[in-house]
Write a structure and sequence with these properties.
This protein is mainly α. The chain is 61% helix and 3% strand. It is built from 6 helices and 2 strands. Strand 1 and strand 2 form a beta hairpin. 29% of the residues are buried.
Length: 157
């Protein structure tokens, strides 16, 4: 079952990359009127959130200092600078490589004894890494939907 969950997350992220790959850096950074963030923020947010949920909120790591770009894309942040093409490329790489690393750590039993936590968004207690990863599927796809809507507002840029 978990192999299918990992495969779904990876395929969803590939679809997200495909959705935004042909946009210009200006389009990725544009915040359309009525919105508080942009496409690249939504993409970066899923990259850092999954790592933080899996490693930090579960107690595997003490803090998020090892999660690259966390300070820019974590929950309750907003775009504060223009993301470069180089950063976009790195985020695309991290989007897939971070899931492969989580999958490897899962197979090696790294998450066999996690500290349960409640999500700040839904207030639901996560008691296992499986629950965290299944929640990731929904979270990633919410932000994919936001990016899809934002894309409609930036295609004229």
């Amino acid at each position: 079952m978990m192999n299918e969950v990992f495969e779904f997350i990876i395929n969803s992220r590939k679809a997200f990359i495909q959705l935004i790959d042909n946009l210009t850096i200006e389009q990725l950074n544009k915040i359309p009127e009525g919105y508080s963030n942009n496409i690249i923020w939504n993409f970066g947010h899923i990259v850092v959130s999954t790592q933080t949920l899996c490693y930090v909120r579960t107690g595997i790591l003490a803090d998020a200092s090892s999660v690259k770009f966390n300070e820019f894309y974590r929950k309750d942040t907003r775009p504060t600078y223009t993301v470069t093409a180089e950063e976009f490329l790195e985020l695309k790489t991290l989007a897939l490589e971070s899931i492969e690393k989580i999958k490897e750590d899962y197979a090696n039993g790294i998450f066999s004894n996690i500290t349960p936590f409640s999500t700040s968004t839904y207030g639901v207690e996560m008691k296992s890494i499986e629950e965290v990863l299944i929640t990731t599927v929904g979270h990633d796809n919410v932000h994919y939907g936001y990016a899809w809507a934002l894309k409609k507002g930036v295609e004229k840029v």
